[in-house]
Design a protein that fits this description.
The complex is a heterodimer of chains A (164) and B (929). Chain A has 164 residues and is of the alpha+beta class. Chain A has 2 domains: 78 residues, Gyrase A, domain 2, CATH 3.30.1360.120; 61 residues. Helix content of chain A is 16%, strand content 34%. In chain A, a hairpin with a 2-residue loop joins β9 and β10. The termini of chain A are far apart. The mean pLDDT of chain A is 92. Chain B has 6 domains: 112 residues, Roll (Ubiquitin-like (UB roll)), CATH 3.10.20; 167 residues, FAD/NAD(P)-binding domain, CATH 3.50.50; 124 residues, FAD/NAD(P)-binding domain; 151 residues, Gyrase A, domain 2, CATH 3.30.1360; 89 residues, Alpha-Beta Plaits; 97 residues, Elongation Factor Tu (Ef-tu), domain 3 (Beta Barrel). Chain B is α+β, with helices and mostly antiparallel strands and 929 residues long. In chain B, α5 links the parallel β8 and β9. In chain B, α15 packs across α20. Chain B is built from 22 helices and 48 strands. The chains are: A alpha+beta (164), B alpha+beta (929). At the A-B interface, β6 and α3 of A face β8, β13, β29, β37 and α19 of B.
């Protein structure tokens, strides 16, 4: 076997890398959504939302596509299933200043970002998925951008300024 | 009264003294002072020199509309020019200096311009510096720019830190005066989320509900689409320099906005009205009530409306002497007259100030009385009010045209940006009581300034009118009226009034120029935010980046990616390294990280049909387990991108794109799938980052791979021939995909593994190929080999080349439709005269062909008329010497011809032989070697 090498990032009290979970993209074939949902035992989340099902996160990911994070048995021949475990890198931003930090890099209304909400947007020119896990905000980007996104997050956290 | 500071009053903190320096001299003010108020308190009148004539200038206003008192703040790389002294909050250690002057403010040799002023009227430069024409760019313009103008740029990278944020709200209130605060509270009471922005420092701790976010020191400077507003918050400009962000650009997204920006005063124009000591009357009141500073001790008022009534009582209460009140109206109003009587101030009704007396500061004013007599009155300040202009600049950012309201003699907002409401004085309410418009006193033969910042005089406007510049937009560009940092906030309306009078037309017919963003100057650094230097755009790293770094690789930017360019050994230059790497691939085996190529999974029952639509060649007949080269056109028939696509299953393809076009192709495919052919059941997923992909190329590639593929995968040519693909495991169970494709022209494979294994994979490959001399190679070697093989890449896919131009016309299927088919078949795009792809080889082996060189027939002049094409990609081949790919007129018919390769930029001029694009192994035998 070959050794797996994960990217390492400088530690920060507010910004953490999220431990690897399996990530798959499912793109449902036309007219197969009811069949797929029946097999999964859950309705797939509507646009811009997320659900947790049998311990896995299911995130809306564009028209007829979802990201599945975690081990969840997916039926075959109902959807195109694409492995993305190595394709995405996830960071979590937490703490009382999380919203202030994220305001600096996200063009979305992060102060009113609900727990079941998902956004596909850009952080400092980097395409990102954003969602919330309890009080942690998760940002996912393509692996090759992870160094750049981590830098942006660190900078936003380090140059934190109070108003007034 | 000590100096000009009043004994009481103002919102300053008299317990906290603040020391600062201006032009090297120390001054003391109080916390809460602006640079302008603190210096006025110290008795300073002279703040700067004017733009063109270098005339002495003092403070004119009290806010961001200030046209005169522009200063440079801080020193060295931190220097910031053109800051309005009226908006600078002082702090201990502040360093400020005057600008646009000679040795000192007092002694400025360029004030000779004032004596030469009869020659320096509007349009002077364009009329005078015409001959010889070549002098304009190199001599005249730089000279004029040095002599005139504003502050100096530091010329160094901006070391300050800036921030950008995005805020959302239901209502944005622009302006924190009484109207703005009331609107904010009303909206908050309805449960709305409110942002309240005010340009000034907070006067007191406001007790606002939580749903109101109050941003002080914040100027909303632009209105954009979709309810987006741009604002600049001056976070730390009022504090000594630190590493904290200096300014913050706020992008505000609001459902609706309320403009409560109030009104700005305009002066009445008279002779020498630019002398230090001529001020707006409201500004005089501001300095007294906000800062406890009286700009003078003997103040003359010159007015045409009732607003001055309150100033009279302010001055009287503060114990400042009022020399007289000159009311331009034939009969003063009772409001003003009564206030003046109460202050025992003489009133001259129907009178006009002809000129200010005094050079370095106002010493008096010359009046023409209603009867025609002229008298002089001593004073040290002339406070003038020609009425107020609603501060409506933001309403015209969506091309709204302000409307002239004759009732208040001012422009009021016309069509406003979507969802913007204008309230209070900004809408023209409660302004200019009993006003009788007076834009210019007349009478004076010397200079009367309309635009103080740009030195535009009454005479300039008259001259422009005589020369036919009668539209305001033309007048502005001819005279520079209303340009620069203040956007003519105190100047424009008087000029419009004057022009209307000269033309005998109504002001409403003339109209104003449109105000454009930004409302106040914004540092470029604030617009850039954190995106500076290397972080101007994100960098993408390959999964073998750390490994390549450890091998001593030199990296190159390709799009956003950093790729290994070459791997130099001790003493090698780039060329030696690249040629050694080529030799290794040609004779043994090399490896190269090709992860950066775009990888798109195309899946679904209609995947093959979808590919037929986007590619020019056929796909439904591609068997599973095979790879095919594909060509993609744009709608206009030009080549968009190329690459190989593999069929992993009946309904499963994986497409590769060029590195640079990966994003564009993905976007194009999404558009095709979501918009053009919605009926096709197909999905697109980018897996560029999921898979790390390594090219293993060279005759020993098969032997190297044989050591790592798991049983029973068979690499033999019988079961895995050229253009085969398959899924397998390697190294005892790592999932992988193998493609037998070649960019180098040698037997080659591309092996993809989940990205996390790529680092270990290259180490494993190096170990497996060690006995064959395996060598990592970079983009330089890759480039040499692809040019030897005539493969097109970015420089050839330049958006202007067709399939015919590139010799790829055989890939244009005649049996089906595809994007770009109709346009690509236009006769002009198939014209053999078009520049098409050829190879070049220098005649003398020591000559080096450079990319970008032009191609000419032998024996003709190097002119654009004789130009027949250009070199797109050049390489130093270890086999052939200097070779290139080029686009040449009638290219395919000219193989064997000798042509001239001319490079005027780098001084190259050499001869080359035209060849077929494929110079290395044209039969392709080595693909199977």
């Amino acid at each position: 076997m070959l050794d797996a090498v994960a990217s390492t990032f400088a530690p920060h009290p507010l910004i953490h890398t999220v431990p690897n979970r399996r990530i798959r993209n499912i793109a449902v074939f036309r007219a197969m959504q009811p069949v797929l949902e029946a097999a999964l035992g859950v309705a797939l989340p509507a646009s811009r939302t997320r659900i947790v099902h049998r311990g896995a996160d299911i995130l809306w990911n564009g028209p007829r596509q979802w990201l599945v994070l975690g081990e969840l048995e997916l039926p075959v021949n109902r959807a195109a299933i694409t492995e993305q475990t190595d394709g995405l890198c996830l960071f979590s931003v937490s703490g009382p200043y999380a919203v202030t930090i994220l305001k600096k890099i996200l063009p979305i209304d992060i102060a009113r970002f609900a727990a079941d909400e998902v956004a596909i947007t850009a952080a400092a020119h980097i395409g990102v998925h954003v969602w919330r896990q309890d009080e942690n905000f998760i940002l996912g980007c393509f692996r090759s951008y992870s160094g750049a996104l981590h830098h942006v997050l660190m900078q936003a956290a380090d140059t934190f300024t109070e108003r007034g | 009264m000590s100096g000009y500071r009043l004994a009481t009053g103002g919102l300053i903190d008299r317990a906290r003294k603040v020391n600062f320096r201006f032009d090297g001299k120390s001054y003391t003010g109080f916390a809460g002072d602006t640079l302008a108020s603190a210096m006025l308190a110290s008795g300073v009148k002279l703040f700067g020199r004017s733009f063109k004539y270098h005339r002495p200038r003092g403070v004119f206003a009290s806010g961001s509309e200030e046209p005169n008192a522009l200063v440079e703040l801080r020193t060295g790389a931190y220097r910031e020019p053109n800051t309005r002294a009226t908006t600078v909050e002082i702090f201990d250690g502040l360093e400020a200096s005057s600008q646009n002057r000679g040795f000192s403010l007092k002694y400025d040799p360029l004030s000779v311009n004032n004596l030469l002023s009869p020659f320096l009227a509007a349009g002077f430069y364009y009329k005078t510096f015409m001959w010889p024409s070549g002098f304009w760019e190199k001599i005249y313009e730089p000279m004029i720019r040095r002599a005139s103008g504003l502050g100096r740029n530091s010329g160094l990278p901006d070391p300050d830190v800036y921030e950008k944020i995005t805020e959302f709200c239901d209502v944005l209130i622009i302006g924190g005066g009484a109207d703005g605060c009331k609107a904010a509270l009303d909206a908050a009471a309805k449960g709305q989320r409110v942002i309240l922005c005010d340009e000034n420092p907070p006067l007191a701790k406001l007790d606002l509900p939580e749903s109101i976010s109050f941003f002080s020191r914040t100027t909303v400077f632009g209105v954009y689409d979709g309810g987006t507003y741009a604002a600049l918050e001056r976070l730390n400009d009022h504090l000594p320099s630190s590493n904290a962000p200096r300014q913050r650009l706020i992008r505000i997204v609001a459902r609706r906005s309320v403009l409560a920006t109030g009104a700005l005063e305009r002066p009445i124009t008279f002779g020498d009205n630019d002398r230090p000591g001529v001020m707006l009357s409201r500004a005089v009141g501001d300095y007294i009530s906000r800062y406890g500073v009286s700009p003078g001790r003997n103040i003359l008022l010159y007015i045409n409306n009732d607003d001055a009534a309150s100033l009279i009582s302010t001055l009287y209460t503060a114990g400042v002497n009022i020399a007289a009140l000159v009311d331009a109206r034939p009969g003063s109003s009772s409001a003003v007259y009564d206030a003046a009587c109460a202050a025992s101030t003489p009133v001259y009704e129907g009178a006009a100030i002809i000129r200010a007396i005094g050079r370095w500061g106002v010493k008096g004013a010359k009046l023409r009385l209603s009867g025609g007599d002229e008298i002089s009155i001593p004073c040290d300040i002339i406070a003038t009010s020609g009425g107020f202009n609603p501060n409506l600049a933001l309403t015209s950012h969506f091309d709204g045209e302000p409307i002239w309201d004759t009732g208040i003699a001012a422009f009021i907002p016309g069509k406003t940006p979507p969802c913007m409401e204008v309230i209070g004085k900004a809408a023209g309410h409660g302004l200019n009581a009993n006003i009788q418009p007076c834009f210019h006193s007349g009478f004076f033969p010397g200079k009367s300034f309309l635009d103080l910042q740009n030195d535009v005089t009454v005479r300039d406007v008259n001259l422009a009118e005589l020369e036919g510049f009668t539209s305001m937009e033309h007048l502005k560009r001819y005279t520079t009226l209303g340009m620069a940092t203040d956007q003519g906030k105190t100047a424009n309306v008087n000029a419009i009034g004057l022009l209307a009078k000269t033309l005998g037309r109504q002001i409403g017919e003339i109209g104003t120029t449109r105000y454009r963003p930004p409302y106040v100057p914004v540092a470029i650094g604030a617009l850039a935010g954190a995106h500076t230097g290397k972080h101007f755009r994100p960098t993408r790293f390959t999964p073998t980046h750390e490994w390549a770094k450890a091998q001593g690789a030199v990296f190159v930017e390709t799009g956003a990616w950093l790729r290994a360019q070459y791997f130099p050994r001790l003493g090698e230059d780039w060329l030696q390294a690249a040629q050694r790497e080529v030799d290794a691939v040609r004779n043994a085996v090399g490896i190269c990280d090709v992860t950066t190529l775009g990888k798109i999974e195309i899946q679904g029952p209609d995947a093959a049909k979808f590919l037929e639509c986007v590619y020019t060649n056929s796909w439904e007949n591609l068997p599973c387990g095979k790879v095919r080269y594909g060509l993609m056109l744009r709608e206009d028939g030009m080549v968009m991108d190329d690459g190989t696509t593999a069929r992993l299953g009946e309904t499963h393809f994986i497409m590769t794109t060029t590195t640079v076009n990966a994003g564009r192709v993905m976007q194009h495919l999404e558009f095709c799938a979501q918009v053009l052919w919605k009926h096709l059941d197909v999905s697109l997923v980018s897996v560029t980052d999921q898979w790390g992909q390594i090219a293993v190329a060279g005759p020993q590639s098969i032997a190297t791979l044989a050591k790592i593929v798991d049983f029973p995968f068979d690499l033999s040519d019988m079961s895995f021939p050229y253009m085969a693909c398959g899924e397998l495991t390697i190294c005892g169970g790592v999932p992988a995909r193998l493609f037998r494709i070649s960019f180098s022209g040698e037997r080659a494979y591309e092996l993809a593994v989940p990205a996390r294994y790529t680092h270990a994979l290259v180490e494993k490959l190096m170990e497996a190929g060690a006995e064959y001399g395996i060598t990592p190679y970079g983009t330089e070697a890759l480039g040499i080999m692809r040019i030897e093989k005539g493969h097109v890449a970015g420089p050839e896919l330049n958006g202007q080349t067709t399939a015919h131009d590139l010799g790829l016309h055989k890939l244009l299927s005649k049996k089906k439709d595809f994007i770009g088919r109709a346009m690509a078949s236009r006769p002009a795009l198939k014209d053999p005269k078009r520049q098409s792809l050829v190879g070049l080889r220098s005649v003398n082996r020591q000559d080096i062909i450079c990319a970008g060189s032009h191609l000419l027939p032998l024996g003709v002049a190097a002119t654009a008329v004789n130009d027949q094409g250009h070199v797109t990609s050049a390489a130093r081949s270890p086999t052939f010497g200097s070779i290139a790919l080029a686009l040449l007129e009638h290219g395919p018919e000219r193989h064997g011809e000798t042509i001239r390769v001319y490079d005027p930029v780098r001084g190259g001029d050499l001869e080359a032989i035209v060849t077929a694009p494929v110079q290395y192994d044209p039969e392709g035998k080595r693909l199977h070697a």
